[in-house]
Design a protein that fits this description.
Layout lengths: L1 H37 L29 E5 L7 H15 L3 E5 L4 H13 L4 E4 L5 H10 L4 E5 L8 E4 L3 H15 L16
Parallel strand pairs: 1-2, 1-3, 3-4, 4-5
Length: about 200
């Protein structure tokens, strides 16, 4: 009887220790992220200076003008990924921006569609897939007054931004939490997309 009582107390203590370690790890990660975000020693910038020209950066407008935002989608707006992109575009529209999307775009058609959007006055163009990366880089060079964004692309420039999500960071944290919380010696993962390697 005495041994059974000791086992229950020991299990409760182990569970409490796992939670404590988990929260300590979480606090350390958030502290590091906060410090990294506040660290501006690499480029402190100049204080008290004014621009010497009136030229606006690509994609920027004068006060009172509306942005014209376009989304070029490799898939449909009814697919999981396309649906969330479309919902984001609707939020942009609600913020007083003109918006448009073109779905089911092939790589061979993307350049022509982007050029049509530029001629129609769209100054912010998003490509939803890295398959459009090279095309976006070429179009961005020819259109310095338009701002381009590529999801998971690899190119960047003055008017081309690569938006990448660090999936490995959230996977690491979830894996660490699972390892701390599981009573078993193994954990598993059900991934949304197949792994290449």
């Amino acid at each position: 009887m005495q041994n059974s009582k000791h086992n229950i107390v020991s299990q409760a203590g182990t569970k409490h220790a796992r939670w404590s370690v988990f929260f300590l790890l979480l606090i350390i990660v958030f502290s590091m992220l906060t410090l990294a975000a506040c660290n501006n020693s690499k480029n402190p910038g100049q204080e008290g200076t004014r621009p010497t020209t009136n030229a606006l950066p690509p994609g920027r407008l004068e006060p009172g003008e509306r942005d014209h935002v376009a989304f070029i989608l490799e898939s449909s707006i009814t697919s999981d990924y396309g649906k969330s992109a479309y919902q984001g575009l609707q939020l942009i529209s609600a913020a007083n921006a003109e918006s448009r999307y073109v779905e089911n775009v092939t790589v061979s058609a993307a350049a022509g569609i982007a050029e049509q959007l530029i001629k129609a006055g769209y100054n912010l163009i998003f490509f939803d897939s890295p398959v459009f990366d090279e095309i976006a880089a070429k179009i961005a060079k020819k259109n310095p007054d338009v701002m381009f964004f590529v999801i998971d692309g690899s190119n960047s420039g003055d008017n081309l931004v690569n938006i990448s999500f660090r999936e490995e960071e959230q996977s690491f944290l979830l894996g660490a939490a699972a390892a701390l919380l599981t009573p078993e010696d193994s954990i598993g993962l059900i991934a949304r997309y197949p792994e290449d390697n």
